[in-house]
Amino acid sequence: MAEPNLAVGACRLWVLRDGLLTDDGGSVFGRVPKSIWSSLVPSRDNEIELPIFGYLIESGRELILVDTGCGTKEGLDPQLHRPDGDLLVSLARAGFDPEQVTMVVNTHLHTDHAGGNTRRHNGSILPTFPNATYCVQQREWASACAPHPLHADLYHALDFEPLQASGNLRLLSGYSQLTEAVGCRLYPGHTPGHQIVVISSGSERGAILGDLATLRWQLADPLWMCPYDLLPATNVDSKRQVLEWLNADGSSMVAFGHDQPLSWPMAAEDVDHMVRPALHPA
């Protein structure tokens, strides 16, 4: 077994990679001018590379996977590149098999976070993690099953509908405690039912944000938005609430769906130093 990348108290975490998505920088940073975002993220012909991360948490007897990447079914994004393999390859490098995962938490059901929920096997679509309970917010489930036209293309029914038929699905309603140390909290904005995963163990805390903030700069300044955020004003409020929790006394670990995990609030001060002079000059 590979050593975990992170720890929050007694919880151990492995960072799992699912490749890189190439996207237009303006599609990620929205109203932030290129003269600013290009100084933060390398680009080529206006395109940037976004890593895709899942996170495996060992909490007591539970092995919890947060987000499953793009998966291996047909219809993968042509801008997806996997030079080091997919999320299951990363899981194997960490020393685990899909059968060992006891819970899957989808922060939301966009296909780059939920495509790996299911796989095609002998013509059937089956849960990739057959022994896991898949935890999704009820509000997110409703949004994915009848999506708004603005993000309908980001949901693929085969990523989640088979979970209901297989009996692996658990719909959550707001705050839910999964283990003594790990829970889910509803923070809508990116999608109507977006949730984050919070970890509290001993005196240490952590948060896995999914796409609450695509990149660290969009958390450091909540007004930095991603155009894929369906409910922008709601997402600003959600980020501010999460920042209050992260900035409380003590230090925290924060992890993103498309950016490297980092410590908080020390890292927040560094990020804030880069962001605010650019958008809010004295």
Condensed summary:
The chain is an alpha+beta fold and about 280 residues long.
How is the secondary structure organized here?
Layout: E1 6-8, E2 11-24, H1 25-29, H2 34-37, E3 47-59, E4 62-66, E5 80-81, H3 87-93, E6 103-105, H4 111-114, E7 118-121, E8 124-127, E9 133-137, H5 138-145, H6 161-166, E10 169-172, E11 176-177, E12 182-186, E13 195-201, E14 204-208, H7 217-220, H8 232-246, E15 252-255, E16 262-264, H9 266-279
Parallel strand pairs: 4-6, 6-9, 9-10, 14-15
Antiparallel strand pairs: 1-2, 2-3, 2-5, 3-4, 7-8, 11-12, 12-13, 13-14, 15-16
What does this protein structure show overall?
The chain has 282 residues and is an alpha+beta fold. The protein has a single domain (6-279), classed as Metallo-beta-lactamase, Chain A, CATH 3.60.15.10. It has nine helices and 16 strands. The strands form three sheets. Strands 1, 2, 3, 4, 5, 6, 9 and 10 form an eight-stranded mixed sheet that branches. It has a six-stranded mixed sheet with strand order 11-12-13-14-15-16. The longest helix is centred in the last third of the chain and has 15 residues, at 232-246. It is globular. The mean pLDDT is 93.
Assign a percent range to the helix content. Answer: 10-25%
Mean pLDDT across all amino acids: 93
Total number of distinct structural domains: 1
- How are helices and strands ordered from N to C? EEHHEEEHEHEEEHHEEEEEHHEEH
Low-confidence stretches: none
Q: Please give the largest β-sheet.
A: 8 strands, mixed
Quaternary class:
single chain
Radius of gyration: 18 Å
Total strands: 16
Approximate shape: globular
